[in-house]
Amino acid sequence: GESVGLHLPTLSVQEGDNSIINCAYSNSASDYFIWYKQESGKGPQFIIDIRSNMDKRQGQRVTVLLNKTVKHLSLQIAATQPGDSAVYFCADKNTGNQFYFGTGTSLTVIP
Amino acid sequence: NAGVMQNPRHLVRRRGQEARLRCSPMKGHSHVYWYRQLPEEGLKFMVYLQKENIIDESGMPKERFSAEFPKEGPSILRIQQVVRGDSAAYFCASSLSGANYEQYFGPGTRLTVT
User: Is A37 within 8 Å of chain B by CB?
Assistant: First the structure.
């Protein structure tokens, strides 16, 4: 079955440093991936997405890398700020309609 | 430029009562998804609807749960005869053109069953 997991449940970084959040997925048929940020008491907020025909995509201060060979996805946040503190989820989708979410990584930015 | 709206934000029900959760998608979006989130867990897909159609309900329990997205008005997730295990945050998301596009989430409804 589907399995989307994260390597580390928590991550602490110094303000200004870069953050890297990792995610593994199990279904080689997954073709679309999204990273979400969820702050306490709020709904998930779309950060960036990537399709399986790409291996890298950049946004504002964020970069997503996709390695289909090892079924690994990462989110890089440049110059991490206190406002980046949240739980980050990766989600993947195959040819069906469902997105499968990982359990999340809690990012804490230390001022 | 309203985003996805959900109400109520918090809902308390006694065991055996019905819970009705509402979701209004972003303007122009006709695809709605419902997810359930337990504390410190990821989101679990429940159901995917378009206007007047259920496209995929494979993640929704067969009993007590139902969902609709009428031609007019919000999408409704209905839980009948709630039990304590139904306590969770229920999130709705909408997308412009189906499951291959980004989904935008509402703030969620936190259901507590006492």
Answer: no
What's the pLDDT at A23? 93
Q: Tell me, yes or no, if B44 comes closer than 8 A to chain A by beta carbon.
A: yes
pLDDT in tens, B49-93: 999 999 999 999 999 999 999 999 999 999 999 999 999 999 999
* Token pair belonging to B5: 């709206």
First to last CA, chain A: 40
Q: Taking chain B, what is the end-to-end CA distance rounded to the nearest angstrom?
A: 36
With a CB cutoff of 8 Å and minimum separation 6, the contacts of A103 are A5, A6, A9, A89, B40, B41, B42
The encoded tokens of residue A83 equal 């406002």
Sign of CA dihedral A83, A17, A32, B36: negative
**What is the C-alpha separation between A106 and A39, in angstroms, rounded?**
10
Chain A hits for B33, CB-CB cut-off 8 Å, are 99
- Contact (Cβ atoms closer than 8 angstroms) between residue B22 and residue B90: no
Query: Which residues on chain A are in Cβ contact (under 8 Å) with B35?
Result: 101
What distance in Å separates the CA atoms of residue A60 and residue A49, rounded to the nearest whole number? 13
Task: Quote the tokens at residue B47.
Answer: 């159901």
